[in-house]
Amino acid sequence: MPFQKTAKLLLIVILLLCLTITTKADEQTIIRQRKQPLNFQIKLSTAIKGYDGKTCWVHARAGAIPVGTPGNQLDNPIVVMTMQKLLLSGSDIFYALNSMRTDDMGKAWKGPLEQKNLSRHDLPDGGEVVVSDFWPQWHAKSKTLLGIGHTVRYYGNRIDHKKNIRVSSYATYDPEKNLWSNWKSLELPKGPEFVSSGAGSVQRFDLHNGDILLPVYFKRPEKKFSDVMVIRCRFDGDTLKYVEHGNELSIDFGRGFAEPSITKFGDWFYMTLRNDKSAYVTRSKDGLRFSEPKKWTFEDGSELGSYNTQAHWVTHSEGLFLAYTRRGAKNDHVFRNRAPLFIGRVNPEKIAIIRSSERIVIPERGARLGNFGIVDVNANETWVIASEWMQTHGPNYVMPVDNKYGSDNSVFVSKILWSQPNALKP
């Protein structure tokens, strides 16, 4: 009996020792993982493709709807993409919004389904209006997929810039019906800065309390150039309401600033801005009042080479990245050098791109990729989505792409697979 008791005690001690060693090993593994630099893999896929030579899909962007209960959400959300047809023989001639959806992380996409209520509407003066440059994004506070864009007006299927008043417009998605609501317009105070103001192709930022920081670009009636500011809005699941706005950011050349996008990393809000000659960046402590914008550069001070197109943020809890296009990539045959689509890590203190981090996230095949979107799908994946825009250099920039490079109006879904979970997951 004493021998059996001793053996049992010895066994218990050995088990406890093994458990202690295992626990410490697990802790060390976690610590090592945390110390490892953030990295990622890129997995390229295609949601849809096909080119009829007359129109093409543009403005492909998506939002992710979490699936499951709060605190126990699954890693495979519903991802809803919107896009619209463009007429190749015109300049920015858009048609109805269409919707696509995947319930299995992009293995299969349903659609596209035309949203007839988000097609062109007749205006009293004989023109037509449609919502465009749309970007869906999950609004956690109201548990709503909220898409925001702006309107564009046509007269004889052409844009009359004297009559083309921009209005920020929005719609919500019903996952049960797989339909978008009618669009509504954001009501703004009276004032010259609000006469023509749009949130087209902008990346917004939702605060923890549900308020939305919505960057917009606007043109005062008396000015030649457009300016940028951030509007703080409140959304209750149905109506988007203006609360306040920040300072105005101006530049008096190249049509001014346009298509701003905002994010937060650490204690700072960052905003990237489009200008005809260069891409610019600025930052802010409160997300409303921003410093004087500066040109995007690499860390050594040389210009990034991005110009006259959009750039958007890829934000991870352990690192800030920018997605962009630029000159100097043997891409002069592409309209405004808008392909390939790059991703580069940002040095947040210098507010500059780390050159050695630059990677191609979507390859160049002769067509431009400048109008694109970002969606945080879950803690492990962020997707960059872009459609091949099948127009190139020529009179009014409306000549079809010579697709000898392989472009076929593919809608690319480039999946960024993180080496570490993103604590900023939706």
Walk me through the topology.
Elements: H1 2-35, E1 40-48, E2 55-65, E3 68-69, E4 72-73, E5 78-87, E6 94-102, E7 110-114, E8 121-122, E9 128-139, E10 144-154, E11 168-174, E12 179-180, E13 184-185, E14 197-198, E15 205-206, E16 212-218, E17 227-235, E18 240-245, E19 258-265, E20 268-274, E21 280-284, E22 294-295, E23 312-316, E24 319-324, E25 341-347, E26 352-353, E27 359-362, E28 372-376, E29 381-387, E30 391-392, E31 399-400, E32 411-418
Antiparallel strand pairs: 1-32, 2-5, 3-4, 5-6, 6-7, 8-9, 9-10, 10-11, 11-12, 11-13, 14-16, 15-16, 16-17, 17-18, 19-20, 20-21, 21-22, 23-24, 24-25, 25-26, 25-27, 28-29, 29-32, 30-31
Written description of the protein model:
With 426 residues, the chain is mainly beta. Strands 8, 9, 10, 11, 12 and 13 form a six-stranded antiparallel beta sheet that branches. Strands 14, 15, 16, 17 and 18 form a five-stranded antiparallel beta sheet that branches. Strands 23, 24, 25, 26 and 27 form a five-stranded antiparallel beta sheet that branches. The chain is globular. It starts with a helix and ends in an 8-residue tail after the last strand.
